[in-house]
What we know:
Blueprint: E1 15-25, H1 64-76, E2 80-81, E3 84-85, E4 88-91, E5 101-104, E6 111-119, E7 125-137, E8 141-145, E9 157-161, E10 168-174, H2 181-198, E11 210-219, E12 229-234, H3 237-256, E13 264-269, E14 274-280, E15 290-291, E16 298-299, H4 302-310, H5 316-327, H6 331-339, H7 341-354, H8 357-375, H9 386-397, H10 403-416, H11 420-427, H12 435-448, H13 450-457, H14 463-474, H15 481-496
Parallel strand pairs: 12-13
Antiparallel strand pairs: 1-10, 1-11, 2-6, 3-16, 4-5, 4-15, 6-7, 7-10, 8-9, 11-12, 13-14
Helix pairs in contact: 2-3, 5-6, 6-7, 7-8, 7-9, 9-10, 12-14, 12-15, 13-14, 13-15, 14-15
Bound molecules: zinc ion (ZN).
Amino acid sequence: xxxxxxxxxxxxxxxxxxxxxxxxxxxxxxxxxxxxxxxxxxxxxxxxxxxxxxxxxxxxxxxxxxxxxxxxxxxxxxxxxxxxxxxxxxxxxxxxxxxxxxxxxxxxxxxxxxxxxxxxxxxxxxxxxxxxxxxxxxxxxxxxxxxxxxxxxxxxxxxxxxxxxxxxxxxxxxxxxxxxxxxxxxxxxxxxxxxxxxxxxxxxxxxxxxxxxxxxxxxxxxxxxxxxxxxxxxxxxxxxxxxxxxxxxxxxxxxxxxxxxxxxxxxxxxxxxxxxxxxxxxxxxxxxxxxxxxxxxxxxxxxxxxxxxxxxxxxxxxxxxxxxxxxxxxxxxxxxxxxxxxxxxxxxxxxxxxxxxxxxxxxxxxxxxxxxxxxxxxxxxxxxxxxxxxxxxxxxxxxxxxxxxxxxxxxxxxxxxxxxxxxxxxxxxxxxxxxxxxxxxxxxxxxxxxxxxxxxxxxxxxxxxxxxxxxxxxxxxxxxxxxxxxxxxxxxxxxxx
Length: 497
Ligand SMILES: [Zn+2]
């Protein structure tokens, strides 16, 4: 991969430096500065008013819920929440912005100086600093018609829908602590999960309620930062990963052929796999920021911040630690369960009902997850409830079913919606746990194999496997393995005396 473009001694010749900016639409009932309902997919321009359409003489009013939601995000990311914060006007013209300025935050953002600890694929943690978390309003939405790509290039005309204009947005800016596309994807995935669990946004990337921009530069290790470019509006994890790969590669190629990187906004086209220049990047001074005179400062005292903090749900990082401590789960399993709240809840319900965390985790991470992935379902849509799975695992624990038989029963539960006990009864399943019957079979088999029996007594423990195999063959795999083991050891020992 490009960031790791490798020399023969395996030291990277180039390294990438990546910072992300994520916009999250808050799912408040109303918009940031007016009473219009926040909607998605409604007929165009049906949720608008003089305030969000930027008519003259109107006054915006700050949405208190949006302040609370942004505070939640800030706290969950370990930010310091500003006691006093104000809004600024960010001036620029675009057809989706009727006021010709966006109300945003500038030098007094709501939260600063946080971090997110990201679990990477190899199990290690990467701490990504959070520079700032601030509140602003979204712009409207332009639809470019008549062109092939849906982009403004080649379009015949453009339509504008102001329903989205004025929707509360939280912008989360990371420090440039990310070095590879894989790390960027892991960060975004885990940030998304965190925000989702806070209940403040739908974080649906396809619908645009979560969007990601990336600042990327490359340098030779140890050198100062290179010139960065900005990739805008990446709306899927795959898009982000691919765009970063391509842009990093492009910058390395340019520098290696003696060119310079220009600070600009670039666009990645997934269809061609190429990046193209969009416009030269604006500097902050281009926007002529000035304090929004129509809004009062927002003052958040300690009591308020502590009240919001107390209302936070258990967060993925905390849950992961708890799952490891409480259930002894491996870190990777705990991270997966903590990142997916419904799956974590499902696991904990099964573990509570069975009293066997290890078996429950094996099943939830194994058969249940495999089924959900294959069927494209969330655990909340699973045909086998936590209670039903616990009943099945109870049959494994009491020796009625072997692990292999339980898998079959599970398949049938998925297919028919029947419960485990019903299926076991219908199919006449259930392993042979009748001690008397098994005892007789074991005795006969030991009797019939004096040679291996003698070997076992000489200390060749592995011969036990041969006997287990014989018993399983005799019982067509239905014998309880633990019981077979115990009986064999007893008979083999007794036979020698
Ligand atoms: Zn409005």
